[in-house]
Give the backbone structure.
Amino acid sequence: MDVKRSRSPRAPAEDDKKRAGGWRGSGVRPEMVLVGFLLTLPLLFLVFGGRWGSSSFPSSSSSSSTTSSPPVVSKPVARHVDAGDRGATPQGQKPVALKNVSASTATSVSQDKLLGGLLSAAFDESSCQSRYKSNLYRKPSPFPLSPYLAQKLRKYEAYHKKCGPGTKRYRRAVKQLKAGRNADNSECKYVVWFPCNGLGNRMLTIASTFLYALLTDRVLLMHVSAEQEGLFCEPFPGSSWVLPGNFPQNNPHKLHIGAPESYANMLKSNVVRNDVDPSSVPASSLPAYVYLHVEQFQLKLSDNVFCDEDQVMLGKFNWMILKSDSYFAPALFLTPMFEAELAKMFPQKEAVFHHLGRYLFHPTNRVWGIIRRYYEAYLARVDEKIGFQIRIFPEKPIKFENMYDQLMRCVREQRLLPELGTAELPPTNATADAGNGNGKVRAVLIASLYSGYYEKIRGMYYESPTKNGEIVAVFQPSHEEQQQYTSNEHNQKALAEIYLLSYCDKVTMSAWSTFGYVAYSFAGVKPWILLRPDWNRETSDVACVRSTSVEPCLHSPPILGCRAKRDVDVAAVKPYIRHCEDVGFGLKLFDS
Protein backbone atom coordinates (compact mmCIF):
# COMPACT_ATOMS: atom_id res chain seq x y z
CA MET A 1 0.00 0.00 0.00
CA ASP A 2 1.57 3.23 -1.12
CA VAL A 3 0.72 5.67 1.64
CA LYS A 4 2.75 8.82 2.32
CA ARG A 5 4.27 8.84 5.77
CA SER A 6 3.13 11.51 8.18
CA ARG A 7 5.66 14.20 8.95
CA SER A 8 6.35 16.35 11.93
CA PRO A 9 3.37 18.36 13.13
CA ARG A 10 3.36 22.07 12.47
CA ALA A 11 3.38 24.51 15.32
CA PRO A 12 -0.09 26.01 15.81
CA ALA A 13 -0.60 29.36 14.15
CA GLU A 14 -1.67 30.90 17.47
CA ASP A 15 1.86 30.44 18.81
CA ASP A 16 3.25 32.49 15.94
CA LYS A 17 0.80 35.28 16.68
CA LYS A 18 1.70 35.26 20.36
CA ARG A 19 5.39 35.45 19.57
CA ALA A 20 4.82 38.29 17.16
CA GLY A 21 2.69 40.13 19.70
CA GLY A 22 5.32 39.64 22.36
CA TRP A 23 7.94 41.23 20.07
CA ARG A 24 5.83 44.28 19.27
CA GLY A 25 4.91 44.89 22.90
CA SER A 26 8.34 44.41 24.39
CA GLY A 27 9.46 48.02 24.08
CA VAL A 28 12.77 47.13 22.39
CA ARG A 29 13.96 49.77 19.90
CA PRO A 30 14.94 48.50 16.41
CA GLU A 31 18.16 50.60 16.51
CA MET A 32 19.29 48.74 19.62
CA VAL A 33 18.63 45.37 17.96
CA LEU A 34 20.60 46.37 14.84
CA VAL A 35 23.62 47.54 16.86
CA GLY A 36 23.56 44.36 18.97
CA PHE A 37 23.37 42.17 15.89
CA LEU A 38 26.35 43.90 14.23
CA LEU A 39 28.44 43.55 17.39
CA THR A 40 27.80 39.78 17.57
CA LEU A 41 28.54 39.02 13.91
CA PRO A 42 32.25 38.13 14.45
CA LEU A 43 31.34 35.78 17.29
CA LEU A 44 28.64 34.09 15.21
CA PHE A 45 31.13 33.53 12.38
CA LEU A 46 33.65 31.91 14.73
CA VAL A 47 31.05 29.60 16.28
CA PHE A 48 29.11 28.50 13.19
CA GLY A 49 31.60 28.96 10.39
CA GLY A 50 32.79 25.34 10.39
CA ARG A 51 31.19 22.57 8.36
CA TRP A 52 29.28 20.01 10.46
CA GLY A 53 29.59 16.41 9.45
CA SER A 54 28.28 13.57 11.57
CA SER A 55 29.90 10.22 11.16
CA SER A 56 27.77 8.56 13.78
CA PHE A 57 24.83 9.12 16.10
CA PRO A 58 24.68 12.44 17.91
CA SER A 59 26.00 12.02 21.41
CA SER A 60 23.41 10.54 23.70
CA SER A 61 24.41 13.07 26.31
CA SER A 62 23.71 16.06 24.13
CA SER A 63 20.31 17.64 24.10
CA SER A 64 18.97 14.95 26.32
CA SER A 65 16.50 17.39 27.76
CA THR A 66 15.37 18.68 24.39
CA THR A 67 11.63 18.79 23.95
CA SER A 68 10.27 15.96 21.87
CA SER A 69 7.97 18.02 19.67
CA PRO A 70 9.24 17.36 16.15
CA PRO A 71 10.57 20.44 14.35
CA VAL A 72 8.18 22.67 12.42
CA VAL A 73 7.68 21.63 8.80
CA SER A 74 5.78 24.31 6.95
CA LYS A 75 7.12 24.29 3.40
CA PRO A 76 9.53 22.38 1.14
CA VAL A 77 13.10 22.84 2.25
CA ALA A 78 16.20 22.72 0.04
CA ARG A 79 18.75 20.30 1.45
CA HIS A 80 21.85 18.51 0.24
CA VAL A 81 20.88 14.91 -0.44
CA ASP A 82 22.93 12.29 -2.23
CA ALA A 83 24.55 9.01 -1.32
CA GLY A 84 25.14 9.86 2.27
CA ASP A 85 28.33 10.26 4.32
CA ARG A 86 26.24 9.12 7.32
CA GLY A 87 24.25 12.30 7.26
CA ALA A 88 26.72 14.85 5.88
CA THR A 89 26.80 15.87 2.21
CA PRO A 90 29.99 15.63 0.18
CA GLN A 91 31.28 19.02 -0.87
CA GLY A 92 30.44 20.12 -4.35
CA GLN A 93 27.15 18.22 -4.50
CA LYS A 94 24.28 20.31 -5.85
CA PRO A 95 21.45 20.90 -3.36
CA VAL A 96 18.20 19.11 -4.19
CA ALA A 97 14.85 20.57 -3.23
CA LEU A 98 13.04 17.97 -1.18
CA LYS A 99 9.36 17.45 -0.96
CA ASN A 100 7.41 18.04 2.19
CA VAL A 101 5.51 14.79 2.28
CA SER A 102 2.17 14.90 4.05
CA ALA A 103 3.07 17.26 6.90
CA SER A 104 0.67 16.51 9.74
CA THR A 105 -0.60 18.58 12.61
CA ALA A 106 -0.61 17.74 16.29
CA THR A 107 -4.35 18.27 16.45
CA SER A 108 -5.15 16.11 13.41
CA VAL A 109 -7.94 13.69 14.19
CA SER A 110 -6.20 11.10 12.01
CA GLN A 111 -3.39 10.86 14.56
CA ASP A 112 -4.45 8.69 17.47
CA LYS A 113 -1.82 9.05 20.15
CA LEU A 114 -3.32 6.16 22.11
CA LEU A 115 -3.05 3.84 19.10
CA GLY A 116 -6.73 2.99 19.06
CA GLY A 117 -6.86 2.32 22.80
CA LEU A 118 -3.67 0.26 23.01
CA LEU A 119 -1.97 2.82 25.26
CA SER A 120 -3.22 4.23 28.53
CA ALA A 121 -3.92 7.96 28.76
CA ALA A 122 -2.86 8.03 32.43
CA PHE A 123 0.73 9.19 31.84
CA ASP A 124 2.43 12.55 31.98
CA GLU A 125 3.56 13.03 28.37
CA SER A 126 6.74 14.88 29.31
CA SER A 127 8.03 11.96 31.40
CA CYS A 128 8.23 9.72 28.32
CA GLN A 129 7.97 11.73 25.13
CA SER A 130 8.17 8.75 22.79
CA ARG A 131 5.07 7.05 24.20
CA TYR A 132 2.56 9.25 22.39
CA LYS A 133 4.77 10.68 19.61
CA SER A 134 6.69 7.82 18.03
CA ASN A 135 3.60 6.82 16.01
CA LEU A 136 3.83 10.18 14.18
CA TYR A 137 6.81 8.75 12.32
CA ARG A 138 5.10 5.56 11.13
CA LYS A 139 2.24 4.70 8.84
CA PRO A 140 -0.98 3.72 10.61
CA SER A 141 -1.04 0.16 11.88
CA PRO A 142 -2.45 -2.37 9.39
CA PHE A 143 -3.88 -4.36 12.31
CA PRO A 144 -7.01 -3.05 14.10
CA LEU A 145 -6.82 -3.43 17.86
CA SER A 146 -9.15 -5.92 19.47
CA PRO A 147 -11.40 -4.14 22.03
CA TYR A 148 -10.97 -7.20 24.21
CA LEU A 149 -7.19 -6.76 24.25
CA ALA A 150 -7.57 -3.08 25.18
CA GLN A 151 -9.90 -4.08 28.03
CA LYS A 152 -7.47 -6.79 29.12
CA LEU A 153 -4.60 -4.28 29.25
CA ARG A 154 -6.56 -1.79 31.37
CA LYS A 155 -7.51 -4.61 33.77
CA TYR A 156 -3.88 -5.71 34.00
CA GLU A 157 -2.71 -2.14 34.71
CA ALA A 158 -5.06 -1.97 37.70
CA TYR A 159 -3.83 -5.37 38.90
CA HIS A 160 -0.18 -4.33 38.56
CA LYS A 161 -0.85 -1.13 40.48
CA LYS A 162 -2.54 -3.11 43.26
CA CYS A 163 0.19 -5.75 43.56
CA GLY A 164 3.33 -4.09 42.23
CA PRO A 165 6.48 -3.02 44.10
CA GLY A 166 5.86 -0.70 47.03
CA THR A 167 2.42 -2.07 47.88
CA LYS A 168 1.39 -3.94 51.01
CA ARG A 169 0.49 -6.97 48.93
CA TYR A 170 3.95 -7.07 47.34
CA ARG A 171 5.67 -6.80 50.72
CA ARG A 172 3.49 -9.60 52.08
CA ALA A 173 4.30 -11.82 49.09
CA VAL A 174 8.05 -11.17 49.47
CA LYS A 175 7.85 -11.96 53.18
CA GLN A 176 6.30 -15.34 52.39
CA LEU A 177 8.99 -15.98 49.76
CA LYS A 178 11.77 -15.23 52.25
CA ALA A 179 10.12 -17.58 54.74
CA GLY A 180 10.11 -20.36 52.13
CA ARG A 181 6.31 -20.57 52.02
CA ASN A 182 3.94 -20.84 49.08
CA ALA A 183 0.61 -19.65 50.48
CA ASP A 184 -2.83 -20.96 49.51
CA ASN A 185 -5.25 -18.58 47.77
CA SER A 186 -2.76 -15.75 47.30
CA GLU A 187 -4.27 -12.50 46.08
CA CYS A 188 -1.24 -11.62 43.91
CA LYS A 189 0.99 -13.84 41.81
CA TYR A 190 4.21 -12.86 40.05
CA VAL A 191 6.46 -13.78 37.14
CA VAL A 192 9.97 -12.34 37.41
CA TRP A 193 11.90 -12.00 34.13
CA PHE A 194 15.68 -12.28 33.94
CA PRO A 195 17.67 -11.21 30.85
CA CYS A 196 19.59 -13.37 28.42
CA ASN A 197 21.61 -12.48 25.29
CA GLY A 198 21.28 -9.27 23.25
CA LEU A 199 18.70 -6.50 23.09
CA GLY A 200 16.59 -8.03 20.32
CA ASN A 201 16.29 -11.32 22.19
CA ARG A 202 15.43 -9.48 25.39
CA MET A 203 12.63 -7.44 23.83
CA LEU A 204 11.10 -10.55 22.26
CA THR A 205 11.23 -12.52 25.52
CA ILE A 206 9.86 -9.65 27.62
CA ALA A 207 6.86 -9.41 25.28
CA SER A 208 6.40 -13.21 25.47
CA THR A 209 6.61 -13.14 29.26
CA PHE A 210 4.11 -10.31 29.44
CA LEU A 211 1.69 -12.29 27.27
CA TYR A 212 2.16 -15.22 29.64
CA ALA A 213 1.42 -12.89 32.58
CA LEU A 214 -1.80 -11.74 30.91
CA LEU A 215 -2.90 -15.34 30.38
CA THR A 216 -2.07 -16.54 33.89
CA ASP A 217 -3.00 -13.47 35.97
CA ARG A 218 0.52 -12.69 37.11
CA VAL A 219 2.34 -9.41 37.70
CA LEU A 220 5.37 -9.01 35.43
CA LEU A 221 8.52 -7.77 37.14
CA MET A 222 11.78 -7.24 35.26
CA HIS A 223 15.34 -7.59 36.46
CA VAL A 224 17.07 -4.54 34.92
CA SER A 225 20.80 -5.10 34.56
CA ALA A 226 23.26 -2.21 34.19
CA GLU A 227 23.43 -2.49 30.40
CA GLN A 228 19.65 -2.13 30.18
CA GLU A 229 19.21 0.81 32.54
CA GLY A 230 17.67 3.94 31.03
CA LEU A 231 16.48 2.28 27.82
CA PHE A 232 12.73 1.97 28.35
CA CYS A 233 10.06 4.00 30.09
CA GLU A 234 7.72 2.40 32.59
CA PRO A 235 4.80 0.87 30.63
CA PHE A 236 2.25 0.56 33.45
CA PRO A 237 0.73 3.74 34.95
CA GLY A 238 1.05 4.37 38.66
CA SER A 239 3.50 1.52 39.26
CA SER A 240 6.83 0.05 38.20
CA TRP A 241 7.83 -3.14 36.42
CA VAL A 242 11.41 -2.95 37.74
CA LEU A 243 12.29 -5.68 40.22
CA PRO A 244 13.46 -4.05 43.49
CA GLY A 245 17.12 -4.59 44.28
CA ASN A 246 16.37 -6.27 47.60
CA PHE A 247 14.41 -9.11 45.98
CA PRO A 248 15.52 -12.28 47.82
CA GLN A 249 16.09 -14.40 44.67
CA ASN A 250 18.02 -11.77 42.73
CA ASN A 251 21.06 -13.81 41.71
CA PRO A 252 21.12 -14.46 37.93
CA HIS A 253 23.96 -16.98 38.32
CA LYS A 254 21.60 -19.41 40.04
CA LEU A 255 19.39 -19.51 36.95
CA HIS A 256 20.55 -22.29 34.65
CA ILE A 257 19.27 -25.48 33.09
CA GLY A 258 20.51 -27.61 35.98
CA ALA A 259 19.00 -25.51 38.78
CA PRO A 260 17.07 -27.70 41.24
CA GLU A 261 14.28 -25.10 41.36
CA SER A 262 13.69 -25.61 37.62
CA TYR A 263 10.24 -27.06 36.91
CA ALA A 264 11.74 -29.74 34.68
CA ASN A 265 14.13 -30.80 37.45
CA MET A 266 11.34 -30.71 40.05
CA LEU A 267 9.47 -33.20 37.88
CA LYS A 268 12.53 -35.45 37.63
CA SER A 269 13.09 -35.41 41.38
CA ASN A 270 9.35 -35.87 42.16
CA VAL A 271 9.18 -32.59 44.07
CA VAL A 272 6.09 -31.93 41.93
CA ARG A 273 4.08 -34.33 39.79
CA ASN A 274 1.97 -33.60 36.72
CA ASP A 275 0.40 -37.06 36.49
CA VAL A 276 -2.04 -36.41 39.35
CA ASP A 277 -5.07 -34.19 39.64
CA PRO A 278 -3.59 -30.71 40.30
CA SER A 279 -6.72 -29.63 42.14
CA SER A 280 -5.88 -32.15 44.85
CA VAL A 281 -2.45 -30.58 45.46
CA PRO A 282 -2.55 -27.75 48.03
CA ALA A 283 -0.39 -24.75 47.09
CA SER A 284 1.08 -24.66 50.59
CA SER A 285 2.69 -28.07 49.96
CA LEU A 286 4.83 -26.70 47.11
CA PRO A 287 8.20 -24.90 47.22
CA ALA A 288 8.25 -21.13 47.64
CA TYR A 289 8.94 -20.51 43.93
CA VAL A 290 9.44 -22.27 40.62
CA TYR A 291 12.02 -21.50 37.94
CA LEU A 292 11.24 -21.78 34.21
CA HIS A 293 14.32 -22.09 32.03
CA VAL A 294 12.71 -21.27 28.67
CA GLU A 295 16.02 -21.02 26.87
CA GLN A 296 16.93 -22.83 23.69
CA PHE A 297 19.10 -25.88 24.19
CA GLN A 298 20.21 -27.79 21.10
CA LEU A 299 17.64 -25.74 19.14
CA LYS A 300 14.72 -26.80 21.33
CA LEU A 301 13.17 -24.99 24.26
CA SER A 302 14.66 -26.87 27.16
CA ASP A 303 11.72 -26.62 29.56
CA ASN A 304 8.61 -28.29 28.18
CA VAL A 305 5.89 -26.34 29.99
CA PHE A 306 3.38 -25.82 27.20
CA CYS A 307 0.96 -28.58 28.18
CA ASP A 308 -2.29 -28.09 30.09
CA GLU A 309 -1.39 -30.38 32.98
CA ASP A 310 1.90 -28.53 33.48
CA GLN A 311 0.25 -25.14 33.35
CA VAL A 312 -2.36 -26.12 35.95
CA MET A 313 0.42 -27.21 38.31
CA LEU A 314 2.49 -24.08 37.62
CA GLY A 315 -0.57 -21.98 38.46
CA LYS A 316 -0.23 -23.16 42.06
CA PHE A 317 3.04 -21.27 42.53
CA ASN A 318 2.75 -17.66 43.71
CA TRP A 319 6.29 -16.80 42.57
CA MET A 320 7.69 -17.79 39.20
CA ILE A 321 11.16 -16.84 37.97
CA LEU A 322 11.70 -17.05 34.21
CA LYS A 323 14.77 -16.76 32.03
CA SER A 324 14.58 -17.00 28.27
CA ASP A 325 16.32 -16.02 25.05
CA SER A 326 13.45 -16.96 22.74
CA TYR A 327 10.23 -15.48 21.38
CA PHE A 328 8.06 -18.17 22.94
CA ALA A 329 4.70 -16.45 22.31
CA PRO A 330 3.84 -18.88 19.46
CA ALA A 331 4.25 -21.78 21.90
CA LEU A 332 1.51 -20.27 24.09
CA PHE A 333 -0.85 -20.55 21.11
CA LEU A 334 -0.13 -24.28 21.15
CA THR A 335 -1.32 -24.69 24.75
CA PRO A 336 -4.99 -25.79 24.56
CA MET A 337 -6.11 -24.01 27.74
CA PHE A 338 -4.95 -20.63 26.34
CA GLU A 339 -6.39 -20.91 22.83
CA ALA A 340 -9.84 -19.39 23.45
CA GLU A 341 -8.45 -16.39 25.36
CA LEU A 342 -5.77 -15.73 22.75
CA ALA A 343 -8.35 -15.86 19.97
CA LYS A 344 -10.26 -13.01 21.64
CA MET A 345 -7.12 -10.98 22.30
CA PHE A 346 -5.65 -11.46 18.83
CA PRO A 347 -8.20 -12.11 16.07
CA GLN A 348 -5.26 -11.44 13.72
CA LYS A 349 -2.59 -13.83 14.89
CA GLU A 350 0.35 -12.09 13.26
CA ALA A 351 -0.27 -8.89 15.24
CA VAL A 352 0.86 -10.30 18.59
CA PHE A 353 4.28 -8.67 18.89
CA HIS A 354 3.17 -5.70 16.78
CA HIS A 355 0.65 -4.75 19.47
CA LEU A 356 2.47 -5.93 22.60
CA GLY A 357 5.78 -4.44 21.51
CA ARG A 358 4.28 -1.02 20.82
CA TYR A 359 2.49 -1.21 24.16
CA LEU A 360 5.51 -2.17 26.26
CA PHE A 361 8.58 -0.55 24.71
CA HIS A 362 8.94 3.22 24.75
CA PRO A 363 12.46 4.66 24.59
CA THR A 364 13.36 7.01 27.42
CA ASN A 365 13.72 10.71 26.64
CA ARG A 366 17.49 10.29 26.35
CA VAL A 367 17.21 7.59 23.66
CA TRP A 368 14.21 9.25 22.02
CA GLY A 369 16.28 12.39 21.53
CA ILE A 370 18.79 10.36 19.48
CA ILE A 371 16.03 8.83 17.37
CA ARG A 372 14.14 12.06 16.77
CA ARG A 373 17.18 14.15 15.88
CA TYR A 374 18.50 11.60 13.40
CA TYR A 375 15.13 11.05 11.77
CA GLU A 376 14.37 14.72 11.35
CA ALA A 377 17.85 15.48 10.03
CA TYR A 378 18.09 12.74 7.40
CA LEU A 379 14.85 10.82 6.87
CA ALA A 380 11.87 13.11 7.45
CA ARG A 381 11.51 14.67 4.00
CA VAL A 382 12.10 11.85 1.56
CA ASP A 383 9.52 10.02 -0.54
CA GLU A 384 10.45 6.49 0.54
CA LYS A 385 12.62 4.89 3.20
CA ILE A 386 14.26 1.49 2.66
CA GLY A 387 15.98 -0.24 5.56
CA PHE A 388 18.82 -2.76 5.16
CA GLN A 389 19.76 -4.67 8.32
CA ILE A 390 22.85 -6.87 7.97
CA ARG A 391 23.91 -9.26 10.74
CA ILE A 392 26.79 -11.74 10.51
CA PHE A 393 26.71 -14.51 13.12
CA PRO A 394 29.93 -16.00 14.49
CA GLU A 395 28.66 -19.59 14.24
CA LYS A 396 28.07 -19.11 10.49
CA PRO A 397 30.39 -16.35 9.24
CA ILE A 398 29.86 -15.10 5.69
CA LYS A 399 32.51 -13.22 3.77
CA PHE A 400 31.75 -9.56 3.16
CA GLU A 401 31.89 -9.96 -0.64
CA ASN A 402 29.41 -12.85 -0.57
CA MET A 403 26.98 -11.03 1.73
CA TYR A 404 27.15 -7.83 -0.31
CA ASP A 405 26.57 -9.73 -3.59
CA GLN A 406 23.56 -11.48 -2.03
CA LEU A 407 22.12 -8.17 -0.86
CA MET A 408 22.55 -6.66 -4.34
CA ARG A 409 20.91 -9.70 -5.95
CA CYS A 410 17.94 -9.22 -3.65
CA VAL A 411 17.80 -5.50 -4.48
CA ARG A 412 17.78 -6.23 -8.23
CA GLU A 413 15.33 -9.14 -8.12
CA GLN A 414 12.83 -7.31 -5.90
CA ARG A 415 13.42 -3.88 -7.54
CA LEU A 416 14.02 -2.30 -4.14
CA LEU A 417 16.22 0.50 -5.56
CA PRO A 418 16.33 2.22 -8.96
CA GLU A 419 18.77 0.94 -11.59
CA LEU A 420 21.96 2.83 -12.30
CA GLY A 421 22.50 4.76 -15.50
CA THR A 422 25.76 6.04 -16.95
CA ALA A 423 27.42 9.27 -15.95
CA GLU A 424 27.76 10.36 -19.59
CA LEU A 425 24.04 10.16 -20.42
CA PRO A 426 21.25 12.08 -18.63
CA PRO A 427 18.43 10.02 -17.13
CA THR A 428 15.69 9.23 -19.64
CA ASN A 429 12.83 10.83 -17.71
CA ALA A 430 14.73 13.22 -15.47
CA THR A 431 13.57 16.79 -15.16
CA ALA A 432 15.71 19.52 -16.64
CA ASP A 433 16.62 20.81 -13.24
CA ALA A 434 16.67 18.36 -10.33
CA GLY A 435 16.75 21.32 -7.99
CA ASN A 436 13.09 22.00 -8.75
CA GLY A 437 12.22 19.20 -6.34
CA ASN A 438 10.36 17.14 -8.97
CA GLY A 439 12.62 14.08 -8.68
CA LYS A 440 11.72 11.29 -6.28
CA VAL A 441 14.09 10.89 -3.32
CA ARG A 442 14.67 7.53 -1.65
CA ALA A 443 16.61 7.14 1.58
CA VAL A 444 18.48 3.92 2.35
CA LEU A 445 19.08 3.33 6.07
CA ILE A 446 21.73 0.72 6.82
CA ALA A 447 21.90 -0.95 10.23
CA SER A 448 25.05 -3.02 10.52
CA LEU A 449 28.04 -3.43 12.78
CA TYR A 450 30.25 -2.83 9.74
CA SER A 451 30.64 0.18 7.45
CA GLY A 452 31.51 -1.71 4.25
CA TYR A 453 27.92 -2.08 3.01
CA TYR A 454 27.29 1.62 3.48
CA GLU A 455 30.52 2.60 1.72
CA LYS A 456 29.80 0.47 -1.35
CA ILE A 457 26.12 1.36 -1.77
CA ARG A 458 26.80 5.03 -1.11
CA GLY A 459 29.65 5.04 -3.64
CA MET A 460 27.48 3.32 -6.23
CA TYR A 461 24.77 6.00 -6.14
CA TYR A 462 27.23 8.85 -5.60
CA GLU A 463 29.30 8.06 -8.67
CA SER A 464 26.46 7.20 -11.08
CA PRO A 465 22.98 8.60 -11.67
CA THR A 466 19.86 6.47 -11.72
CA LYS A 467 18.11 5.63 -14.99
CA ASN A 468 14.83 7.18 -13.89
CA GLY A 469 16.33 10.33 -12.39
CA GLU A 470 15.51 9.45 -8.79
CA ILE A 471 17.88 10.47 -6.02
CA VAL A 472 19.14 7.79 -3.63
CA ALA A 473 20.55 8.96 -0.29
CA VAL A 474 22.37 6.41 1.87
CA PHE A 475 22.79 6.71 5.63
CA GLN A 476 24.27 4.61 8.42
CA PRO A 477 23.88 5.88 11.99
CA SER A 478 26.71 3.83 13.53
CA HIS A 479 29.12 0.95 12.96
CA GLU A 480 30.30 -0.61 16.21
CA GLU A 481 32.30 -3.45 14.54
CA GLN A 482 31.20 -5.96 17.21
CA GLN A 483 28.17 -6.54 19.38
CA GLN A 484 28.61 -5.44 22.99
CA TYR A 485 25.91 -7.04 25.12
CA THR A 486 27.11 -5.45 28.33
CA SER A 487 27.53 -1.86 27.09
CA ASN A 488 24.73 0.53 27.96
CA GLU A 489 25.82 3.03 25.30
CA HIS A 490 25.89 0.29 22.67
CA ASN A 491 22.36 -0.77 23.64
CA GLN A 492 21.13 2.82 23.41
CA LYS A 493 22.39 2.99 19.83
CA ALA A 494 20.94 -0.43 19.06
CA LEU A 495 17.51 0.59 20.36
CA ALA A 496 17.66 3.84 18.37
CA GLU A 497 18.47 1.92 15.18
CA ILE A 498 15.66 -0.57 15.79
CA TYR A 499 13.25 2.34 15.95
CA LEU A 500 14.73 4.07 12.89
CA LEU A 501 14.40 0.81 10.92
CA SER A 502 10.80 0.54 12.08
CA TYR A 503 10.06 3.89 10.41
CA CYS A 504 11.06 2.49 7.00
CA ASP A 505 8.50 1.67 4.31
CA LYS A 506 10.42 -1.44 3.24
CA VAL A 507 12.83 -3.62 5.22
CA THR A 508 15.42 -6.17 4.11
CA MET A 509 17.06 -8.11 6.93
CA SER A 510 19.46 -10.93 7.69
CA ALA A 511 18.05 -14.35 8.51
CA TRP A 512 17.86 -15.31 12.20
CA SER A 513 18.26 -11.71 13.39
CA THR A 514 16.10 -10.86 16.42
CA PHE A 515 17.13 -7.21 15.94
CA GLY A 516 15.45 -7.25 12.53
CA TYR A 517 12.41 -9.15 13.85
CA VAL A 518 11.67 -6.40 16.36
CA ALA A 519 12.05 -3.60 13.80
CA TYR A 520 9.77 -4.97 11.10
CA SER A 521 7.18 -6.13 13.64
CA PHE A 522 7.02 -2.61 15.09
CA ALA A 523 6.54 -1.27 11.56
CA GLY A 524 3.93 -3.85 10.65
CA VAL A 525 5.63 -4.58 7.31
CA LYS A 526 6.60 -7.94 5.83
CA PRO A 527 10.35 -7.91 5.21
CA TRP A 528 12.57 -9.48 2.58
CA ILE A 529 14.79 -11.98 4.40
CA LEU A 530 18.36 -12.63 3.22
CA LEU A 531 18.65 -16.39 3.56
CA ARG A 532 21.63 -18.11 5.16
CA PRO A 533 23.73 -20.40 3.00
CA ASP A 534 23.65 -24.08 3.85
CA TRP A 535 26.19 -25.04 6.51
CA ASN A 536 28.52 -26.60 3.94
CA ARG A 537 28.33 -23.67 1.50
CA GLU A 538 29.50 -20.05 1.42
CA THR A 539 26.72 -18.59 -0.73
CA SER A 540 22.96 -18.96 -0.93
CA ASP A 541 21.28 -19.87 -4.22
CA VAL A 542 18.21 -17.84 -3.23
CA ALA A 543 19.06 -14.24 -2.39
CA CYS A 544 15.95 -13.36 -0.37
CA VAL A 545 12.33 -14.31 0.22
CA ARG A 546 9.37 -12.25 1.39
CA SER A 547 8.06 -13.10 4.84
CA THR A 548 4.48 -14.35 5.03
CA SER A 549 3.94 -12.54 8.33
CA VAL A 550 5.07 -9.58 10.41
CA GLU A 551 5.53 -11.89 13.41
CA PRO A 552 8.99 -12.82 14.71
CA CYS A 553 10.20 -16.41 14.45
CA LEU A 554 10.47 -18.83 17.36
CA HIS A 555 13.84 -20.38 16.53
CA SER A 556 13.59 -23.22 19.04
CA PRO A 557 10.10 -24.69 19.21
CA PRO A 558 9.21 -26.94 22.12
CA ILE A 559 8.75 -30.66 21.76
CA LEU A 560 4.98 -31.02 21.80
CA GLY A 561 2.89 -34.09 22.29
CA CYS A 562 3.00 -33.66 26.05
CA ARG A 563 2.38 -36.92 27.86
CA ALA A 564 2.30 -38.79 24.55
CA LYS A 565 6.13 -38.39 24.54
CA ARG A 566 6.27 -37.75 20.84
CA ASP A 567 7.23 -34.78 18.70
CA VAL A 568 4.42 -33.16 16.74
CA ASP A 569 4.83 -30.88 13.73
CA VAL A 570 2.27 -28.28 14.75
CA ALA A 571 2.74 -26.39 11.46
CA ALA A 572 0.97 -29.31 9.81
CA VAL A 573 -2.04 -29.26 12.15
CA LYS A 574 -2.51 -25.63 13.24
CA PRO A 575 -3.86 -23.32 10.50
CA TYR A 576 -2.21 -20.22 12.00
CA ILE A 577 1.28 -21.70 12.42
CA ARG A 578 3.95 -21.96 9.74
CA HIS A 579 7.61 -22.78 9.61
CA CYS A 580 9.79 -19.69 9.33
CA GLU A 581 11.30 -18.69 6.00
CA ASP A 582 14.76 -18.24 7.52
CA VAL A 583 14.69 -21.02 10.14
CA GLY A 584 13.20 -24.14 8.58
CA PHE A 585 12.37 -25.86 11.88
CA GLY A 586 11.24 -22.60 13.56
CA LEU A 587 7.62 -21.53 14.02
CA LYS A 588 5.79 -18.27 13.43
CA LEU A 589 2.21 -17.05 13.61
CA PHE A 590 0.50 -15.85 10.45
CA ASP A 591 -2.91 -15.04 8.99
CA SER A 592 -3.92 -16.82 5.81
The CA atoms of residues 67 and 450 lie 32 Å apart. The first helix runs from residue 13 to 24.
